[in-house]
Amino acid sequence: MEKIYIFDDVLDSNNCQALVEEFNQFYNPVIYVKTEQTSPYIADGRLNYPLWGALHKPMTESKNTALNRSPLGDNLCLIHISELIKIKAQKTLKKNIKLRRVNTNVQFYGMESWPHKDGKSNEWTFLIFANDLWHPTWGGSFVVHRGNDDRDYVNVPLMPNRGVLFRADLYHYGTAPSRYCVEPRFSLAATFTEIT
Fold this sequence. Notes:
This protein is an alpha+beta fold. Helix content is 16%, strand content 31%. The chain has a single domain, classed as Sandwich (Jelly Rolls), CATH 2.60.120. Strands 1-10-7-12-6 form a 5-stranded antiparallel β-sheet, covered by helices on one side. The relative contact order is 0.24.
C-alpha cells in the first residue's frame, strides 16, 4: 500500500493568493482540450464526454527546440509555486527531486476526469487545490488508487490550499464539481523526478 501525504495550508497567504489569481481568465485563458488517452469513452477517435480545461501554457519561441516543447511552460508564477512545494515534498520524502512538469486543471459540473498516471515509480506529483473558497456540497474531490485493488483508494475532499503528494505512477483523478456548484474546480499538479 502506497503512502499518500495530505497537507493543509500548503502555501502562505501571499503565494496562495498568487496561485488563485493565476486561474483568473482575465490574466490566463483557459483552453478546453484535455482528455485521457486511456479512457474507454474514446471510440473511433470520438469523445463522448466533455473535455476539461487547463490554463493555456504559452511557450516562448526559442532556437532550442527542446525548450519549445518544455512541459513547464513559461508561467513564472506557476513555476515559482512548484518550486515552493518541491521543498515541502523533499522534506516529506527525504529525497532530492527536480521539477519535470507543471499541469493545471479546470473542471465545471459534468467534466469528470478518468483515472490516469502522471509518471513512473521514481516520480512524484504534488497537487494543490487552487480555489479561494469551496463548500463541501460542491464536490470536486481528488481520488488516488493505492494499489491493484479497486477498493484501495484515498478520497481527498477539496479544501482551499490543500495539497496531496503521491507517487506519479498511481492511478488518480479529480472529480467534477456537483450541480450545486457555480464555480470551476481549479488545481495545480507539479510532477517531480527523483535525483539519484
